[in-house]
């Protein structure tokens, strides 16, 4: 039975990486409504919605086609860095809650992106 699961998962831990990435994207997309900054930061609302959808789509790609998509792990790290600096670039005088929210989302994205890159490097075929 272990061999069957190893073949099915392709030697990678799906729940460890892909699930949290999807949940992070989902939270990023809905965070403007959770933290109630839809009227004070309309540009950041659109930004977080689009970035959340993009992160969620990356997670689905990691799940559906891991061999091809794990090369985008570094792009996911770059998205995390962008989420950290976005409140000052996209936003208009964001308050501390908005800034902390985006910093946490960005830091988690960078950490999960590094974890995805590590998983990809570990499962890559050796010459």
From TrEMBL:
Residue ranges of every copy of the SPW repeat-containing integral membrane domain listed in the record: 18-113
UniProt keyword Transmembrane present: yes
Coiled coil: none
Source organism superkingdom: Bacteria
Keyword Transmembrane: yes
Transmembrane domains' residue ranges: 21-38, 44-62, 69-90, 96-121
InterPro entries: SPW
Keywords: Membrane, Transmembrane, Transmembrane helix
Protein name, UniProt field: SPW repeat-containing integral membrane domain-containing protein
């Amino acid at each position: 039975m272990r061999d069957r699961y190893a073949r099915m998962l392709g030697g990678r831990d799906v729940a460890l990486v892909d699930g949290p990435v999807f949940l992070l994207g989902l939270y990023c997309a809905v965070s403007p409504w959770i933290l109630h900054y839809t009227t004070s930061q309309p540009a950041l609302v659109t930004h977080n919605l689009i970035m959340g959808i993009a992160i969620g789509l990356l997670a689905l790609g990691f799940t559906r086609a891991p061999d091809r998509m794990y090369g985008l792990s570094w792009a996911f790290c770059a998205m995390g860095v962008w989420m950290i600096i976005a409140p000052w670039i996209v936003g208009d005088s964001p308050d501390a809650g908005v800034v902390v929210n985006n910093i946490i989302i960005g830091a988690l994205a960078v950490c999960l992106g590094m974890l995805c890159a590590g998983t990809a490097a570990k499962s890559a075929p050796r010459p």
